[in-house]
Amino acid sequence: MDAKQLRTFLTIVDMQSFTRAGRRLGLSQSAISQQVSGLEKELGVQLLVRSGAGARPSSAGEVLLQYARQILSRVDEAQRVLADYDSADLGVLRIGAGGAVCHYLLPAILKEFHDNFPRIDLHVHSGHTALTLERILDGQLDIGIVTLPVTQPKLRITELGRDELIAIAAPGHAWAERRRVQPADFAGETMLIYERRSQTFRLIERVLLEAGVFPRAGMEMDHLEAVIEMVRVGLGVAVVPRWTVQNEIARRELVGLAIGKSGLQRSWALVLSELTHPPQRLRAFVRLCSERLPVGLAG
Predict the structure, then answer these.
(1) Domains in the chain: how many in total?
(2) Does one domain contain both 252 and 192?
(3) How far apart are CA 141 and CA 232, in angstroms?
(4) Which of 105, 147, 150, 283 would bridge 296 by S-S if both were Cys, CB 3.0 to 4.6 A apart?
(5) Do 76 and 95 sit in the same domain of this protein?
(6) What is the pTM for the complete model shown?
C-alpha cells in the first residue's frame, strides 16, 4: 500500500467516478483500475462499489477512507516541510478566516506579506470558525484566524486580543440618541442575522436569551456587507464587530451602540496544527498577523 494508491482511491471517492478521477490525476482508466485492484488484493477486501457510471466506498472502503485522509495529509505536510528547506521564499500559504476578516482586515496584511514574499502563492478560504478549524485538522489549511474558545486538540494557538460587538441601527431609529443598549432593548426589534452557524451568533443569542429576549429574526444573510446595508436603510437592527462599521458611524450613516454595562467582546487567535513543523513563510505570517491584527480588531 503506497501513497499513490491511496491518493487514487481517495480521488475516486471524492469524484464519485473512476473516469473523473482519471482526468484529475492524468491517468488512464486502466491505470486507475489497476491501482485499485492492486490495493484491494493487498488488503484482501473490496474497497469500491461501482454503480452505473459512478463509484462509492464499500463498508471496508469507508474505514480506509479515514486513514487515507490522515496519511496523505501527513505526506503532503512532509513534502511542504522538505520543500521549505530548499527554498524558504517559495511555496503556498493556505489561510482560513471568516468573511468579515477576509473583507476588512486581511487585504492590507496580505499585501504587506506579498511585498516581502512575492514568490509565495497565497490561498484564502473564507468560513466560520468551526469550518476553518475542521479544514486545519484535515490538512486543507496551514493557518486560521478564528474566535475563541477553541476546544479541538492538536492545535497550536496564538492569542491576538479582543474586539467589540456593537448594535447598529439607522440614524432615524429610536436608539439614535443613545450610546448604549441593554440586551432587553432588543425585545420587539427585528434583527438582521449574519452567519447563524457561527460562534459569534451563538454568543449574541446566548446574551439575549439570558435576558429573556427571544430574537425576532428578519433576514439572514451570508454577507456582512448586506446586513450593514439593510440596517442602513432601516430594515432592522444588527450586532456586528465595531471595526466593520467605523467608517459608516463616522459618516453618520449608522448609529453604533455598546451592548450591556461593559460591552460585548470576543477573543481572537491564530490557529495551526501543533504537529506542523512551521516553515519560514508560516512563521513570518504569524509574526505579521500578531503585530497587525490586534490593532485592526481594536478598531
Answers:
(1) 3
(2) yes
(3) 35
(4) 105
(5) no
(6) 0.70
